[in-house]
Amino acid sequence: MLDSVTEESLARELGWYVIDSICPEEKDWFAELSDSYFADPRSALSPRRSTEDLAFGGADFDTWTPAALAVGAYVANLLGTLTTDSLREQLRAPVGDLVRRMFRRRTRPEDAVVLSPAQITTVHDAALRHGQSVGLSHPQATTVADAIVGELYQSG
After folding, report:
1. Is residue 76 within 8 Å of 10, Cβ to Cβ?
2. Integer distance in angstroms from the first to the last C-alpha of the chain?
3. 3-class DSSP state for residue 107?
4. Bridge-partner residues for 48, per DSSP?
5. How far is it, in rounded angstroms, from Cα 136 to Cα 127?
6. What gap in Å lies between CA 12 and CA 31, rounded to an integer?
7. pLDDT in tens, 28-63
């Protein structure tokens, strides 16, 4: 749910807290280990195995940092999803009200939400494409898209 830059930033932050808590001696190498992890997560997570490890079914990570970052990224995405779901529910009514205010004819002009020309073009193009996708001819879809954009430009 998060973009990769935000995910990495949050994973680094959460990973730092984990390392500070469970293995503070790794803090001196945290930045370098984090860079290595994000350059190649699979390789960074591969445990180093010795013959003894294989015989006893165990394996040790050289450091805790890659695992802390992997879990941190997963948890950051989970929290992002939970937050998005919560915000979606909380914003349902306010977003509806804002969209309604975009149709200025039904609101006082001073309450209207003003879209930029680029946003108006985006709305028009999306309405045109969707009109065609539901079976309208190009001229019919254009008529609907123009009417929607016209409604957005209406002044009280």
Report:
1. yes
2. 39
3. coil
4. 60
5. 11
6. 9
7. 999 999 999 999 998 888 866 444 444 444 445 568
- Rounded to an integer, what distance in angstroms lies between the CA atom of residue 66 and that of residue 45? 6
Residue matched to tokens 């195995």: 49
Q: Return the number of other C-beta atoms located less than 10 Å from residue 111's C-beta.
A: 12
Query: What DSSP character marks residue 103?
Result: S
Name the token pair of 62: 């050289």
**Alpha carbon distance 30, 41 (integer Å):** 15
- Residues 6 and 13: their CA atoms lie apart, in Å, by 11
pTM: 0.57
Residue keyed to tokens 């045109």: 128
The pLDDT tens digits for 73-100 are 999 999 999 889 888 888 888 888 877 7
- Please say whether the dihedral angle defined by the alpha carbons of residues 7, 10, 14 and 19, taken in this order, is positive or negative: positive
| CA dist., res. 120 & res. 127, Å (int) | 10
- DSSP letters, 37-82, are HHH-HHHHHPPB--HHHHHHT--B-S-SHHHHHHHHHHHHHHHHHH
Judge whether 8 and 38 are in contact, CB under 8 Å: yes
In 117-129, which positions are buried (b, 16+ CB within 10 angstroms) versus exposed (e)? eeeeeebbeebbe
